[in-house]
Amino acid sequence: MIAGFAAIGMAAPAMAQSTEDEATSVSEIVVTGSRIRQANLVTTSPVTQVTSEDVRETGVSRVEDLVTQLPQAFAAQNSTVSNGASGTATVSLRNLGSTRTLVLIDGKRMPYGSPLDAAADLNQIPAQLVERVEVLTGGASAVYGSDAIAGVVNFIMKKDFEGLEITAQYGQYLHHNDYDGPGNLRSVIEGRGATNPSQFQLPDDDVQTGFSREITAIMGVSSPDGRGNITAYAGYRKNNKVLGRDYDYASCSLGGESAGSFTCGGSSTSNPGRFTDFATFDYTLDASGNFIPFSSARDAYNFGPLNYYQRPDERYNLGAFGRYQVNDKIEAFAQLMFNDYQSVAQIAPSGNFGNTTTINCDNPLLSAAQATGIGCSAADIAAGSDTDLYILRRNVEGGGRQSHLNYESYRGVVGIRGDLDDAWGYEVSAQYSKVRLSQIYRNEFSVARLTRALDVVTDPTSGAPVCSSVLDGTDPNCVPYNVFAPGGINQATLDYLQVPLVMTGYTEQQVVTASVTGDLTDKGIVSPWAQSGLKLALGAEYRRDALDLTTDVSYSTGDGAGQGGATIGLGGANSTYDLFGEFQLPIVEGMPLAESITLDGAYRASDYTLGGKTDTWKLGLDYAPVSDIRFRASYQQATRAPNVIDLFTAQGFNLFDLDDDPCDFTDPAGDGTASSGACIGTNPWQVTAAQSTSGFLTSPAGQYNYLQGGSPELEPEDSETTTFGVVFTPSFLPGFNMSVDYFNIEITNLISSIGAANTLDACYNAGLQQACDLVQRNANGSLWSGDGVVVDLNTNIGGLKTSGVDINAGYNIDLADFGAASFGTLGFSFTGTWLETLETDTGLGFENSVFDCAGKYGNTCAANGIAASPEWRHRATVSWGTPWDGVHLGATWRYVGEVELDSGVTTRLDSTLDAQHYLDLNGSWQLRDNVTLRGGVNNVLDNDPPLSYSVGTTGNNNTYPQVYDAMGRYAFISVTASF
Fold first, then answer.
1. Angle at 952 between CA 951 and CA 958, to 5 degrees
2. Average pLDDT over residues 733-755
3. 457 with 464: CB under 8 angstroms?
4. Is the pLDDT of residue 27 over 70?
5. Residue 533 DSSP one-character state
């Protein structure tokens, strides 16, 4: 990054100043991971920094895009999520889940981001006001409370700003479509286009999309006497949508492979439709409206192109941060923040997903041949008898399903702080946050109306087709849904069938904190081998988190045809009363082979209204034999209480991903099947022999039903975190620093669900009865249609653990020191993470109940919310402060290691997703004293992402856009003017 000679660059480790003089010139500060004020950036837990310059020089308009480029951080919800989008932006440190990562602003916690997601929403962060971001990845629950098991992301805001600064930025994606990776995909799409041109077509060779505009302003003024300052900010941002159809590698939804090439799969909820009883007949329509055999290879609906690769969004934010020194004992401070965020998540159109299961044989929409084809006899037609008929027909006329999300968030902090005397200081603060959600889901079919619109008879008066509900008066507005003839659907039909689904809700947080910090050196509490004495921080905190979610009748009754089930409102609150304390005690200072030895620790006792009492503690040791090298280690035991969503989410259907049904003996995914003894029988989890070979058990879209829900019986989860490492700041190499840290985090009694895919494995491959009891197939043996489902409620499972090594380094060079003063300065930085393990234990006690997702991807890992997890990721940057006045140039190399399919299959085209190398270039030019021009290109080489047909809804459009650069080259330009 372009940080010049004065900064290390992005992701520099936080550590001590390089000389004693520098250290003594630094005023006391608070470092993330401790409330104790200290004169340097030394911590016993690893802390990585991202600076405000990094935000500008990468050209990101979303803060989460910058944070998740760090190897320790992974995206959870973000702008690339459409299917299942909450509309928030969250971060998951160590891939342990976003609810185990605590997000702070100036050391004070952020609220639940949404009634749908307890993790903090990074959309609320005003990027223009960020001074730096400190990422602590060693756990910090003893200092900050619950949710900091994986670590803390602390946004430090600019203080005492004076003047006016305005920044405008524009960016866009630029991509050349020439996919040449495994699978011959372009040829496959061309081939499918020959038989189904409306569904399969290659995009233009060159696309420009995802346009981004942002303008921000910061204004600050200090009081004449210098005792106070107010810094205000405002901003507007708009990002355009990016569609899957704009990219050749996303223009078809991968369904498998054949003869060395990927195949385009899709959904059997198709156009012009699929008509079947899943036993004796399986039809679609030809151009004349005649029934012909349905073929997935020809007729499956290509749902990927309409999915948003990037959701469009629009954001307004404004706020102010202020402080005033009332007297020498009291400084008052306040923070006021407002954010309005709107986004739209789009996936493929709704339709009849087999929501209707029968039809009356005298239905006038059926031709005589069609009625005969579905088994209606003349007697059945005369009697108006019902016959089995599942209709799977896509609403292509109505367009994609769109979730319109709007969040309004408010946050206020007030408090006072100051010094009680020379030894003790204090801070008392209160904060209140509220997030309001309004969601409208559009272009969705109503199951109730769909049922009535297909229950059609002949009007005895006019002789025209009419809904039975019109004749009997139960629904005089019903319009017949004619899916049996080409062109049979008109706007009147859509106006009747499509209904908006509405949910509203809010989250609310109240926090009151009081703390004192003390330096007892002058009180004589000093080690005999040290000059500095004991430092303490003591305090108490009250916190209440509440949320409420209200859903309309269409949501709560499961009336949305494409929703997978009901979404039922929830509400609740949890309060906690905490007492906490910290200490830092120098044991030895300034002695031979013991430049410093420091012990620190923290303890927190928490009492939850829901979750009981918990204790959390930490011990750390810092040892520097000489000033050039420092060893550090810490151990923490922490507890995370279940949040309101964990406890109270209502039970309802949702969807999980699976390549094929383990009892589908046609084995479409080629990954093997369960045994006939496990699958065939009369138990609720079993199928008939005919069903096992029918080919109907596997969902063409790779999605199956599961029953989700919270549980008030959840217990807190426990964790143990161990870190140890070494920090180098060699005096013989001025400007260089490096840290290497090992981490090991083990969570037991994990608050999670077993994972529906894991339940199937436990039932069919391990014969575990308690797992089989959770599998409930419908009459057709299906888990993807009708009421077939796998029960997967929240519970406490065995655990989750991860371990690995972080490496951070930085080196600044003034080329004048090497006799090349005319060449300027160079700055280098490096941050990398080696992931040793990322292991989940479902607690079921069979061979596969423990699985390691380090270096893996696939359905097993996705069952517990884990996307691709490379064993090695790094980011290396070089910045050049050129000899030309005001010109800086920079380059970044981002590396994402390979991952392998978690099933262990090695013969598939996507058995290994290859490692990716990304090159980013940027530069800045100070045109005038108060005007700076910046620009850059990320993913300069326009790399295509690796593809797989097993990414499911954890990914998007055949890849993981939260891990890989899925939208091609991104170019940006910005200008900043200061007054």
1. 50
2. 93
3. no
4. no
5. B
